[in-house]
Design goal:
The chain is mainly beta. It has 2 domains: about 5-30 and about 45-190, Protein Transport Mog1p, Chain A, CATH 3.40.1000.10; about 200-309, Beta Barrel (Lipocalin), CATH 2.40.128.20. Helices cover about 10% and strands about 45% of the residues. It has 3 helices and 18 strands. The strands form 3 sheets. The protein has an 8-stranded antiparallel β-barrel. The longest helix has 16 residues, at about 110-125. It is globular and about 55 Å long.
């Protein structure tokens, strides 16, 4: 995840975010026994009739209520979201279930180092006293770490030597309707499976990295906003790349072929899923932004021109 958590939840990329004053989200992070997985989750009467979602590409299965279907955001990210009775647009997410799971690359770093980087970013956003210490955790074949910040819970679980899962729980329950407990049962039903791998021939790997370098151009979004943008891409080999979007957002992605790519990026308040393709000398990006501190999504498009290889 890198340093993307260091961005403040104001002046966000590609959207004018209103100033929000919230008194409904508990701001003091506390780690409670409810955040520890137990052996009784699978036998819980509430979960007996739950459905099982299996994602072989991301390498896990997870249980969920039948009325709470996972939404595939693309780029190795899914979200479970259910609004509570008082949740509304353009406010912080404080009532309902919001659990996102994203598969990310370690890029040679230890999982503990990544967690510490993100805790540092969370401290810049929420303040030192609103971020708990990291704690070791593990269940369902996973081991990793968790911490809390601003009333949210972050999990980082090692998937394999190259990848990890980042799980963010934004759920809130001001009406005591059981949303937080249900969200935790969803998370702790996670089970590791062997991921499906796509093997590339030596010839196929040669076409990747064709879009590396620095790109500049313009963006517009579905909110009627527009502006200038930049994208820097570095090839990582084996069909993977990393880079920086808009000067501050760390991204990870994959080449589909020599003219198409997908990538993900995240700030403290936005999750971005992006698809790109070239038309002549122009790189066209189409993205979906999911609000993490409020509800809802919006879309956008960019046209970029490469200025350096």
């Amino acid at each position: 995840m890198g340093n993307q958590m260091k961005q403040k939840p104001v002046a966000e990329k590609k959207e004018s975010v209103p100033t929000i004053v919230s008194t409904t989200i508990p701001m003091t992070p506390t780690v409670t026994p409810a955040l520890t997985p137990t052996k009784t989750v699978s036998s819980d009467k509430e979960t007996e009739n739950w459905e099982t979602y299996k994602n072989e590409k991301m390498g896990f299965s997870i249980q969920h209520p039948g009325n709470l279907k996972p939404e595939d955001l693309g780029g190795g990210s899914i979200v479970f979201q259910l609004w509570g009775p008082t949740q509304s647009n353009d406010t912080e997410f404080y009532d309902g279930i919001n659990v996102s799971i994203t598969k990310k690359t370690l890029y040679g770093k230890s999982l503990e180092a990544i967690v510490e980087e993100n805790r540092g970013g969370s401290k810049e956003v929420w303040g030192n006293d609103q971020v708990s210490e990291k704690k070791q955790t593990g269940w369902g074949g996973y081991n990793g770490y968790m911490y809390q910040a601003g009333g949210h819970t972050y999990f980082y679980l090692e998937q394999d030597p190259q990848n990890y899962l980042e799980i963010l729980n934004l759920s809130g329950d001001p009406g005591n309707l059981g949303y937080v407990k249900t969200s935790e049962k969803i998370i702790f039903s996670l089970q590791k499976i062997n991921p499906t791998e796509t093997k590339m021939s030596p010839k196929a790997t040669q076409i990747y990295g064709n879009l590396t370098g620095k790109w500049t151009g313009k963006w517009t979004n579905s909110l009627g906003e527009k502006g200038d943008d930049t994208l820097e891409i570095t090839d990582e080999g084996a069909g993977n790349f990393k880079g920086v979007w808009s000067g501050t957002i760390n991204i990870t992605g994959q080449w589909s072929d020599k003219t198409n790519l997908t990538f993900t990026g995240r700030t403290s308040t936005r999750n971005y899923q992006v698809q790109g393709t070239t038309q002549g000398e122009t790189l066209i990006l189409k993205y979906t932004a999911t609000r993490l501190n409020t509800s809802g999504t919006y879309t956008g498009e960019e046209q970029l021109t490469r200025v350096s290889p």
